[in-house]
């Protein structure tokens, strides 16, 4: 048993169970269950039944036991915990007369006998006998103060045999039968005839027909049982109805009919409305910090109660995180009910590490960090082609050992595109860059023509040499029309009338882009380029379809193009539409 004292009988050193309950002494051991007396929060004394879970069968038996407790809802049960390394139930003291004392009484009320038999039937439905539970009687009501876990399931025959031994004591002594209302009236005629006392009969009839009148006391705001006891003590009958208000405690009286101060004959009925608002489910606060817990409880109309500091080493809980809560998550509670929590003071002397988180979602990475005893404190975004929301980088690095409770920083992917700065219906496009005119070539000095040109053999034709300081234009710098060198061209004997063809340069002009994106524009990233004799230039950067659908896009300034030009709308890099400039 984790945190159990080794020598509980001789002033043992106090140890804790689950970091919450200080062990005072060991009460009993039965199978794999150890029952200890402990000190809980605020110094109250409780009993903890700790289960040693070593096999899957042990775990299955504990969960079956927990299901029975939830079905029977014992008055003595305050908490039951089932998580790896901690399986236990917490019990409190229940006031009342033990069942053994009631069975030993010479006279028993009929209501008491009926309630004991009813309790035996309820236990039998779940495979338990009366002897498996500590039963106490509160007035005539049978309450379960403690239920022992069974090592082996009981057969119906075994349960019936055990219950018969206990219930046989109900047959000993006298049973006072429940008196039926109005049954005493049957004796009035007999008394009148037997006694001959006409006066007494007349007085009895007078009292019955004209009972005394008393003032109805005000019981608003009182606990339902105390209010009923007060009214029945005054001679009135009481019935309950349910209602709900938000400013009174659960189980208190919010209305009474007739109202307080009314004069009413005794024996009449007073109806009390008990505040019983619908219960809500307690949220899970474990692993949250106090600010997160307050926000979560505020959403459920609850408040944060007492905060206790406990060592988080046993549960591997980082500092400032909630270790456990009371009531536990999922249990029913009322609006405005405070929830008590235990917060970790940190983990001492332990190291841990993270696996490779790249490619996981942020939620998956947070879960890995939580299991490792670390806390994700910062998540930054980074443009990437990876799926949005996936982890790109992590700190600490994978498999690097760090102290438990250390912070974790994640970098996650976001789409590369950025939304346009203007969200109006018309999207003006930025002016494209103006192409630079080609540089003027350096004129070449003409060479003198020989006066007596004689044809030379082909092998003797000299290679022309450029004069020093002459710049030879590169292919990109060659003008469309060669410069006039004023050198006479020798006549072509083959075609005396032949002249050199002239090449005309493409003209530069200004055009406008105008395009309306359809309302049902497919999802994707869209860009616009202009294609002309000078190549392609982008005039609209990549923009998401949600920013363009149904809108008109035009260029804020004329676009300078050379020669034939066309605007191309591309979706995710592929051509989507072409627009001829006007």
What does this entry look like structurally?
It is a single chain. The model is unreliable at about 1-10, about 450-465 and about 470-495 (pLDDT under 50). The protein has nine helices and 35 strands. Helices cover about 15% and strands about 30% of the residues. The two termini are about 85 Å apart. A hairpin with a 2-residue loop joins strand 34 (about 565-570) and strand 35. Helix 3 packs antiparallel against helix 4 and helix 5 packs antiparallel against helix 6. With about 575 residues, it is of the alpha+beta class. It has a six-stranded antiparallel beta sheet with strand order 1-2-3-4-6-5, with helices on one face. Strands 31-30-34-35 form a four-stranded antiparallel beta sheet, with no helix packed on it. A three-stranded antiparallel beta sheet has the order 7-9-10.
Widest β-sheet, arrangement of strands: 1-2-3-4-6-5
Rg over CA atoms? 48 Å
Please tell me what the overall shape is. Answer: elongated
Give the biggest sheet: 6 strands, antiparallel
**N-to-C span:** 87 Å
Assembly context of the chains: single chain
Question: How many individual β-strands?
Answer: 35
pLDDT average, as an integer? 78
Q: Pairing-aware structural class of the strands and helices?
A: alpha+beta
Number of helices: 9
The helix content is: 10-25%
Q: Poorly predicted ranges (pLDDT <50, ≥5 residues)?
A: 1-12, 452-467, 469-496
Relative strand content: 25-35%
């Amino acid at each position: 048993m984790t945190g159990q004292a080794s020598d509980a009988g001789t002033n043992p050193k106090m140890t804790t169970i689950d970091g919450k309950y200080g062990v005072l002494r060991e009460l009993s051991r039965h199978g794999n269950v150890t029952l200890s007396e402990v000190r809980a929060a605020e110094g109250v004394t409780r009993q903890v039944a700790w289960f040693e879970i070593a096999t899957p069968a042990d775990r299955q038996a504990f969960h079956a036991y927990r299901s029975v407790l939830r079905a029977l809802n014992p008055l003595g049960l305050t908490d039951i915990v089932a998580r790896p390394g901690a399986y236990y139930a917490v019990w409190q003291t229940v006031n009342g007369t033990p069942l053994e004392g009631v069975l030993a009484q010479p006279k028993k009320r009929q209501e008491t006998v009926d309630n004991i038999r009813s309790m035996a039937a309820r236990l039998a439905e779940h495979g338990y006998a009366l002897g498996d539970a500590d039963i106490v009687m509160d007035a005539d009501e049978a309450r379960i103060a403690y239920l022992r876990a069974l090592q082996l399931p009981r057969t119906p025959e075994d349960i019936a045999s055990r219950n018969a031994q206990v219930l046989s004591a109900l047959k000993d002594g006298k049973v006072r039968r429940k008196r039926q209302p109005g049954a005493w009236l049957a004796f009035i005629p007999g008394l009148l005839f037997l006694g001959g006392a006409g006066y007494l009969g007349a007085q009895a009839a007078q009292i019955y027909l004209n009972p005394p009148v008393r003032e109805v006391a005000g019981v608003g705001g009182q606990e339902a049982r105390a209010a009923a006891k007060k009214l029945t003590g005054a001679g009135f009958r009481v019935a309950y109805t349910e209602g709900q208000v938000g400013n009174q405690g659960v189980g208190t009286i919010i209305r009474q009919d007739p109202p307080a101060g009314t004069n009413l004959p005794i024996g009449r009925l007073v109806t009390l409305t008990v505040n019983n608002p619908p219960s809500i489910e307690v949220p899970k606060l474990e692993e949250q910090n106090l600010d997160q817990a307050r926000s979560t409880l505020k959403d459920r109309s609850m408040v944060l109660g007492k905060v206790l500091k406990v060592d988080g080493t046993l549960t591997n809980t980082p500092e400032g995180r909630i270790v456990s809560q009371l009531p536990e998550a999922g249990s029913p509670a009322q609006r405005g009910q405070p929830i008590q929590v235990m917060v970790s003071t940190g983990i001492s002397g332990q190291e841990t590490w993270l696996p490779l988180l790249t490619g996981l979602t942020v939620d998956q990475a947070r879960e890995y960090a939580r299991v490792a005893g670390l806390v994700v404190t910062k998540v930054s975004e980074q443009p990437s082609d990876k799926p949005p929301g996936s982890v790109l980088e992590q700190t600490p690095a994978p498999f690097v050992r760090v102290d438990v409770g250390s912070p974790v920083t994640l970098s996650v992917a976001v789409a590369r595109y950025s939304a346009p700065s203007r969200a109006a219906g018309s999207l003006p496009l930025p002016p494209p860059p103006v192409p630079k005119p080609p540089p003027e070539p350096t004129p070449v000095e003409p060479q003198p023509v020989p006066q007596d040109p004689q044809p030379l053999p082909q092998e003797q034709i000299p290679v022309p040499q450029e004069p020093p300081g002459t710049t030879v234009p590169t292919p990109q710098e060659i003008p469309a029309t060669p410069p006039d060198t004023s050198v006479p061209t020798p006549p072509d004997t083959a075609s005396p009338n032949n002249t050199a063809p002239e090449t005309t340069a493409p003209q530069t002009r200004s055009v406008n882009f105008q395009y309306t994106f359809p309302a049902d524009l497919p999802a994707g990233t869209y860009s616009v380029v202009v294609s002309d004799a000078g190549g392609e230039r982008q005039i609209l950067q990549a923009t998401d379809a949600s920013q363009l659908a149904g809108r008109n896009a035009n260029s804020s300034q004329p676009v300078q193009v050379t020669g034939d030009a066309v605007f191309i709308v591309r979706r995710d890099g592929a051509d989507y539409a072409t627009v001829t400039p006007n």
